[in-house]
Design a protein that fits this description.
single chain, 314 residues, alpha/beta, Rossmann fold, Alpha-Beta Plaits, 6-stranded mixed β-sheet, 11 helices, 29% strand
Length: 314
């Protein structure tokens, strides 16, 4: 049975003794989508990935892959799943062709389909010129490509990639990112990473997990709107009292930064820059800076995880 949601996770829990590593996690991954899965170290990211791939049983909850329950019918569900762990499971003494053919056999592909599958995976991952070479003699970037190739060789509906660009140089990172974007045309992709620019570069949606719980689930467009922070940095040689600045339409709060610089928090849809500039000129405030302030994904990430830490400490 095929559905638009290729992965459906409902109320997932995982306990280690009394410690709850993953708590009530629910989400879906749609066909043709790249989902970025973020979290600080120890947040429950890898534990969740292991449960999604059937390598770890949840304490409670369900995982459905392409309409098939992973716990009730694991073999059938896993046929729709390709997985690249953080450390690619490669046999360095084999050639690329030998290894991929072996992976195809593990995927229970028919003998007459293996050559076609190996050729397809190599073409998709840019491995066409290295099929006869030993894996151990190839660069880290090529080994990551081979890891991705083994994950897609049986043309699964969903591909899960755990930290696919760790340890690569900038050129290799760019190549792997392009490959992941290309894969999304035919597969749905879950990308687990702690590299924030990677999420913005290649994902359609992002989820942040902290202390085992999802603290953010949003589209990249929605995340971009979050990054349009409603603040304005103002520099004034002769600043008025904060109460005077608060009389400007849209200004909610005034924060003093020192050296004549202030941060004005304002209503998101009501930008006070023009009115402030006019008041500054008329009042002789000596305006020397007027800069809209933007949040980065890193700022949002830190705010969410720090807030969670603060709440727990309280």
């Amino acid at each position: 049975m095929e559905t638009d949601s290729l992965i459906d996770v409902q109320h997932l829990y995982r306990y280690y003794g009394t410690h709850c590593a993953v708590r009530d996690v629910s989400f879906q991954v749609r066909r043709g989508e790249v989902l970025g899965f973020l979290g600080p170290n120890g947040a429950g990211k890898s534990t969740t990935m292991q449960m999604l791939t059937g390598n770890l049983a949840p304490s409670a909850g369900s995982v459905t892959i392409n309409g098939v329950d992973l716990l009730e019918h694991p073999k059938q569900a896993k046929t729709a799943l390709g997985y690249l762990p953080e450390q690619p499971p490669l046999y360095r003494e084999l050639t690329v062709d030998e290894f991929l053919a072996y992976c195809a056999r593990l995927g229970r592909m028919a003998s007459n389909e293996i050559l076609r599958a190996v050729s397809y995976a190599k073409e998709r991952c840019g491995l066409g010129d290295v099929g006869a070479r030993l894996i151990g003699n190839l660069s880290k970037g090529y080994q990551q490509r081979i890891g991705i190739a083994q994950a897609i060789i049986h043309t699964p509906a969903v591909v899960i990639l755990d930290e696919p660009t760790v340890g690569l140089d900038p050129i290799q990172i760019r190549e792997i990112r392009k490959l992941i974007r290309d894969l999304s045309a035919e597969h749905s992709v879950i990308l687990s990473t702690h590299i924030l620019p990677e999420v913005q570069a290649i994902c359609d949606r992002v989820q942040i997990i902290n202390k085992g719980e999802l603290v953010l689930a949003d589209s990249i467009d929605g995340l971009t709107r979050r990054m349009q922070q409603a603040t304005l940095i103002v520099g004034l040689h002769r600043p008025p009292e904060p109460a005077t600045l608060k009389t400007i339409a849209g200004v909610l709060e005034v924060e003093t930064l020192g050296d004549g610089r202030l941060r004005l928090h304002h209503v998101p849809d009501q930008h006070p820059a023009e009115a402030l500039a006019e008041r500054a000129v008329n009042g002789g405030w000596g305006l020397f800076e007027l800069t809209p302030e933007r949040l980065s994904l890193e700022d949002i990430f830190v705010q969410l995880t720090d807030n969670e830490t603060t709440e727990e400490a309280a």
